[in-house]
Specification:
Layout lengths: L2 H26 L6 E4 L2 E3 L7 E2 L1 E5 L2 E6 L1 H5 L7 E4 L4 E4 L1 E6 L1 H7 L3 E2 L6 H14 L6 E6 L11 H5 L7 E5 L4 E4 L1 H6 L12 E5 L5 E7 L2 H5 L7 H18 L1 E6 L7 H9 L6 E7 L7 H13 L5 E9 L29 H13 L4 E5 L2 H17 L8 E4 L8 H7 L2 E4 L8 H16 L5 H6 L3 E4 L10 H10 L19 H7 L2 H6 L17 E4 L16 E6 L2 E4 L4
Parallel strand pairs: 1-6, 2-7, 8-15, 9-10, 10-11, 15-16, 16-17, 17-18, 18-19, 19-20, 20-21
Antiparallel strand pairs: 1-4, 2-3, 4-5, 7-22, 11-12, 12-14, 13-14, 22-23, 23-24
The structure holds zinc ion (ZN).
Zinc ion binds next to loops.
Length: 569
């Protein structure tokens, strides 16, 4: 046999031998799974095989996904079998925008979410203050502007229920604080106090601070709140982890606060209580990253770099929010005396920062809500991509609430991911009222334009921005497909052209999110070889009335093959 012939035939021979071995192996014995989930209706989010009945798990990964009959062959006497009882199974849910530390801390504060009147708000605060008499501060969050006459809260309403100690209540959007007279006095804020850069102390006609602090003005008061000790933060994170597991969230993109808590997250991981995977961004403010920032990033990346905790690029903040008129708009607001809001960065400095981030091969995630901020983010991404040779950085625009018509197709064209939070488009009037009023009817048409971005070839990554709204993905999924509030109003949906299909919404909460964190090869779908992250849910969201999706409960959450919430016999 000549050498030429040998080399020509050997690949085919090798293939045949491998095939024979493989077949022999199949007939003899499949590797035993540690766990088999069976009798399930698995929506895999794997385009090649969207539905399956069973999944076998070994060493934290899916070993097999397919029919219940075939899955049996992976069972041994030691295999734990989870009978899903015919229920729907989804990949573990991915939240592409959270503030996990403050979200976790919020679980132990006054929860004002969903409140619609001043009375309701006061009642919750009064109850909390009464139950926590020794707390030096009364803290809470979750109110929205339209619950207050005039669209902004006033100190007198808070003084009525907390007269004895400082109190601070964050708006649901995190951009405005509402404080009482005690807190203003403690911070020394009076009619003579100047507004900080990027912030406003709201004042009445006579110049007296009203108790509403916009953007950076919040920190004039919040800096007096004692920092939680590491032990307190750790305790909060444990509660947050339990919350994530309960809701089926297995992977998050940390958009602020997590970088500083990396060591604590690592401690949780060490003791086996990490039940969600973290991709953590480093927050960089104007005028841009310093050498010290880069050293901190590289040190952190060297230390935390696996499927549980890894670094996920840089977070930048380009503007505020539409509801309070601080988002940067191309044209003036309808209601803010000709203001267009403002950018938190000089455009040139922002572009330079993005270029530097991308040149390092890192992803930039930019908070940009107003159409002017979104345009600048896209411009910066476009220029940086050109300079960095189109590296696969997957830049994100976070929120992207009101995109100018011309910019919608740029997401697809530039490969920029739109990081939307569907529940933020909840059209309930107290939640959305100020938003709609501020932009006016023309710009309202492009509000939360998920479908338009998709149709333009753009990618979506859904999330919550917890604690802005609940960490639960289920109300978000419902609003994504209905554009109605949770009471079904307005019937047929607010701007129904922006609804997405349930398959697209689930994708954006799973594989789409994983893609946004460069994790799509490992996570985001139920596929052999991927990490064994899944949820079994109480109802089949593909079969029920879409208005019921928010009521979905997670019966069981599995992360890396381990059941971290619930149990099924
Ligand atoms: Zn955020």
């Amino acid at each position: 046999m000549s050498r030429t012939k040998l080399s020509r035939t050997s690949p085919a021979l090798a293939l045949l031998a491998a095939l024979l071995l493989f077949m022999a192996g199949c007939q003899a014995k499949k590797p035993a799974a540690e766990t088999v989930v069976t009798n399930a209706r698995i929506y895999t989010v794997d385009a090649a095989r969207p539905w399956a009945e069973a999944a076998a798990v070994k060493d934290g990964r899916f070993l097999f996904v397919g029919s219940a009959k075939e899955a049996k062959r992976f069972q041994s006497k030691d295999t734990k079998v989870i009978d899903a009882g015919g229920r729907l199974v989804l990949p573990g849910l991915v939240d592409s925008h959270v503030h996990f530390v403050s979200g976790s801390a919020s679980l132990a504060k006054v929860d004002l979410s969903g409140t619609k009147t001043v009375q309701e708000i006061q009642e919750r605060i009064r109850t909390f203050a009464g139950e926590n008499p020794s707390a030096p501060w009364v803290q809470g969050r979750g109110w929205m502007y339209a619950a207050f006459p005039g669209g902004l809260p006033e100190k007198k309403f808070l003084d009525e229920v907390v007269p004895d100690r400082p109190a601070i209540m964050r708006c649901a959007d995190g951009h405005t604080s509402w404080v009482n007279s005690r807190a203003l006095a403690m911070a020394g804020i009076n009619r003579g106090t100047l507004d900080p850069k990027n912030g406003t102390i709201v004042r009445d006609g006579g110049g007296e601070p009203t108790g509403a602090l916009l953007e950076e003005a919040s920190s004039l008061v919040s800096k007096f709140i004692p920092e939680p000790t590491p032990e307190e933060t750790l305790a909060a994170l444990r509660r947050g982890m339990a919350e994530a597991a309960r809701l089926g969230v297995v992977r998050v993109h940390g958009m602020g606060g997590e970088f500083e808590a990396l060591e604590l997250l690592d401690r949780l991981r060490g003791e086996g209580s990490l039940t969600a995977r973290f991709s953590v961004t480093m927050w960089v403010d104007s005028p841009g990253p310093t050498e010290k920032d880069w050293k901190a990033y590289e040190d952190a990346r060297a230390k935390h770099n696996d499927e549980w905790i890894s670094l996920g690029g840089v977070k930048l903040m380009l503007d505020g929010v539409i509801d309070s008129g601080t988002a940067a708009m191309l044209d003036p607001y309808e209601t803010q005396r000709g203001s267009r809001g403002k950018l938190f960065w000089e455009p040139a400095a922002f572009k330079k920062a993005v270029a530097e981030i991308n040149a390092r091969g890192l992803q930039a995630s930019t908070h940009a809500i107003g159409d002017a901020a979104i345009r600048l983010a896209l411009d910066a991404y476009e220029e940086a991509a050109r300079a960095a040779g189109n590296r696969d950085v997957r830049n994100k625009v976070e929120h992207a609430e009101d995109i100018a018509a011309d910019d919608i197709p740029r997401f697809g064209r530039l490969g920029v991911i739109a990081g939307f939070q569907p529940f933020h488009a909840n059209p309930e009037p107290v939640w959305m009222g100020s938003w709609v009023e501020n932009v006016g009817p023309e710009r309202e048409q492009r509000a939360f334009a998920w479908k338009a971005v998709l149709d333009g070839g753009g990618r979506l990554a859904f999330g919550s921005d917890w604690p802005v709204v609940t960490l639960s993905p289920w109300p978000g999924l419902q609003v994504a497909v209905t554009r109605e509030d949770l009471d079904g109003k307005p019937a047929g949906g607010w701007l129904p052209q922006h609804k997405v299909s349930l398959a697209d919404a689930v994708y954006a909460y799973t594989l789409g999110g994983a893609y946004g964190m460069h994790r799509e090869k490992e996570e985001g779908s139920v596929e052999a070889g991927k990490l064994a992250d899944l949820v079994i849910v109480s109802q089949d969201i593909f079969e029920i009335e879409p208005r019921q999706i928010a009521k979905t409960e997670v019966v069981l959450t599995m992360v890396g093959g381990r059941v971290v919430h619930g149990a099924l016999k």
